[in-house]
Amino acid sequence: MRGHTIVWWGFSSCTTAVNVLNSNQFLGAKGDRTMFTLHCLSAKDIRKHSYYPAEDEVLLMPATQFEVIGCLNQGDLHIIQLEETRPPHPLLLPVQIVVPPSINPTPSIIPNIPVNAQWAQNGITVAGGNRQGNEINQLSSPCGLYVDDDQTVYVADYDNNRIVGWKWGATSGQVVAGGNGPGSGAHQLSYPRDVIADKERDCLIISDTSNRRVVRWPRRNGTSGETIISNIDCWGLTMDENGSLYVIDWVKDEVRRYRRGESQGTVVAGSNGRGNRLDQLFYPHYVFVDRDHSVYVSDWGNDRVMKWVKGAKQGIVVAGGQGGGNGLTQLSYPKGVVVDHLGTVYVADWGNARIMRWPNGATQGSVIVGGNGEGGQSDQLHWPFTLSFDRHDNLYVGDNGNHRVQKFDLESNK
After folding, report:
1. In terms of CB atoms within 10 Å, which end of the chain has fewer, N or C?
2. pLDDT for 67
3. Cβ-contact 399, 140 below 8 angstroms
4. Does residue 236 register a pLDDT over 80?
């Protein structure tokens, strides 16, 4: 019954990829069958410990509480949709989980988006949107953004030299890093262009562009940051499941990977001079890393998105690359990029004021939001910089020219 609360008592192996169910040993084609679709907060990724890594296994923990969102009975197939909720009372004896140093629980954020997903065409402002300014309810040319599990949005507030956290439903943000004027002090930032969260260390990793450094800043009550990478013309950055950082150097036209403790890093894309060959980049801006450690780069000056397979000497064009323009085969100065579990590329098409989706292997993309001309209406964007998805596959866009972050709700999977 919809709205009913249930408690899942046993350890259960689940999958994040529905195509696993093609095997007859799971769902089958006939007879009474029941399938649960779950939105989980606490499931544990066990792919590295599974005999069947291709099944994308996660472990559902005992005593997990769910609310029934919906049910569908189609012939002999019964589908029950559940969403994890927080129990009203904490455990009397909280379980302490000790993670060995060799296992890093900081995951890449690989969205699991349905193939035919559609989003609302009118966005909701979840940060800023109160004209350009430096008040706590304003943003000024926001760049990178990161959406946490609780839908808190962390924004690199570029012109205000700060990182601001906006909780879901809040009418103003909270300065969580910087905000002390532009400068090179440990308590300052200077025109930050990207931000991500390192959940293991409970900190933010910030691309402090004008200071040519990458900074680690405590996520809670931090008053100053620590420089972890110096002398780099950083723009976008991301982290893989091993805790390695991938950082764009837009002046050297390269992407470097920094394993924990490294100060020099290793080139994983570009670094062959500025140009449009497949082994070159031209002012790269943002970066994404998938589960295979392939690196996706928004190659801003070449109007394309490039994929560099791990260890490759050159990249593959996966979006754009047909010259700058507004056709469905083209991009115009692309910026933020995200790739889902199917290899579908989502890109902020900056010059065309739209967000595009390019399926794996496609020669043209489709517009999923925006594309209605530059403007400040709810169905418009103005210089979209970055994008992200929350755990419900809702889309968030850093709308730079409108000094806001827009949320576009997932509307349909058909």
Report:
1. N
2. 85
3. no
4. yes
Q: Does residue 66 belong to any structural domain of this protein?
A: no
Question: 403 with 129: CB under 8 angstroms?
Answer: yes
Looking at the DSSP assignment, which residues form a beta bridge with residue 243? none
The strand pairing partners of 266, in sequence order, are: 257
CB atoms within 10 A of CB 412: 10
Q: Is 258 exposed, middle or buried (0-12, 13-18, 19+ CB in 10 A)?
A: buried
Virtual torsion, Cα 143, 286, 350, 300, nearest 10 deg: 130
Q: Is residue 104 part of a domain?
A: no
Enter the tokens of residue 307: 């994929």
What is the domain extent for residue 181? 118-411
* pLDDT at residue 200 tops 80: yes
pLDDT computed for residue 245 by the predictor: 97
* Contact criterion met (CB below 8 Å) for 135 and 129: no
CA distance 392 to 395: 9
**Residue 159 predicted with pLDDT over 90:** yes
Amino acid occupying residue 269: A
- Which residues, 6 or more positions from 23, have their beta carbon under 8 angstroms from its beta carbon? none
Closest CA to 193 of 155, 167, 240: 155
pLDDT over threshold 70, residue 45: yes
pTM: 0.75
Q: What is the token pair recorded at 215?
A: 């900074």
Q: With a cut of 60, say whether residue 414 has pLDDT above it.
A: no
Is 35 contained in some domain?
A: no
- Identify whether the C-beta of residue 356 lies closer than 8 Å to the C-beta of residue 365: yes
